[in-house]
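Table 4 source record.
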Amino acid sequence: MAKGSPKKYVRAAVETLRNIASQVRGSSAKELQGGDLLADDLGYDDRELENLAVWQRQVGNALRTDDGRTRILAKHLKEKNVRQVLGETLKRSIGAEHKDDELDRLISEARTTL
């Protein structure tokens, strides 16, 4: 994925950062780093993981080009970091896995649009 990533992927990264930050007191989406762990660094608990899973399903569904639904559960996000949440969302919605550097690039592009 080169600079100028597809807009829909950058948009998914923006929404992922916003979704994650919405449950973190004193942190904005723009401050999140790809390696920030949901539980250890951001204080996520089971309830917050459940909320995030619902919101990430919506992000995933917006990426799909078929009539299917994205299946993301809280257990899929447990012990993940910000980068991995985005990667899991992309994988479960469009079926493609992305390398860490590609996901970091998307997160960087998303942070510049916030």
